[in-house]
Amino acid sequence: MNNYIEYNNKMAFHPGYYIQELVEDSGLTQEDFAKRLDTTPKNLSLLIRGEQNLSIDIAV
Questions:
Q1: How far apart are CA 38 and CA 20, in angstroms?
Q2: Which residues contact 16 (CB under 8 A, 6 or more apart)?
Q3: Is 58 exposed, middle or buried (0-12, 13-18, 19+ CB in 10 A)?
Q4: 35-44 residue pLDDT tens
Q5: Does pTM top 0.85 for this prediction?
């Protein structure tokens, strides 16, 4: 699954794309970052890969 879609010559990225950047910039492991988001590492991984939608809890 792509982390982006194209429409009218514009590109929109899945929220997981930006979450991945935040994880990398934080210097934390995905496991530690997931704990801070109060989610599991598996859920975070699915979100980053674009296989899961962003939940309201994580968005907040």
A1: 16
A2: 3, 47, 48, 49, 50, 52, 54
A3: middle
A4: 999 999 999 9
A5: no
